[in-house]
Amino acid sequence: MRIVELRQYTLRPGARETLVELFEREFVAGQQDAGITVGGRFRDLDDPDRFVWLRAFPDMAHRRRALEAFYTGPVWQEHRDAANATMIDSDDVLLLRGPGFTPAPGVREVLATVCHPADAADFAGYAARHLGPGHALHRTEHAENDFPRLPVRTSEDVRVWFGPAEPTPWPTRHLRLEPVRP
């Protein structure tokens, strides 16, 4: 299991394609060069001003070093103003532990479920009955955010999975996502 960030950006109206193009051209390779595994990148099908993506790290210490390398490095320094000009909010971030997720080539739509279970033991039984290995199940990582320059939501205990919606007895939010690169 790895440390995974599920990042959901609220963008200025009409700016999503500008960010997607910049992200794909500059930020995927730039982050990978810093030791970050960039996972799925998505357009939110229910919000034209939303960009959702994942990145992963082997552990929290690696996360801190890789984020420091990227955000002080030449790629971010050169392109940050252009990226930030597309965004209203980039702080909707869940810090998770899980396998990460990248959709298979050719997939046109992905469903992500963010679930707020009341009890971890109850959820484990639910997951054993309803979720398989293909769901890429993640859970909140409760470690301290050691790169505070990038906030994460720490007040929630969530489970996130990718794949078909499954009814749950807990509050859920479904994200219908289109991969940037099908």
From TrEMBL:
Which protein is depicted? NIPSNAP family protein
Q: Which InterPro entries match?
A: Dimeric_a/b-barrel, NIPSNAP
Extract the coiled-coil ranges from the record: none
State the Pfam families in the record: NIPSNAP
Q: Which residues form the NIPSNAP domain?
A: 4-94
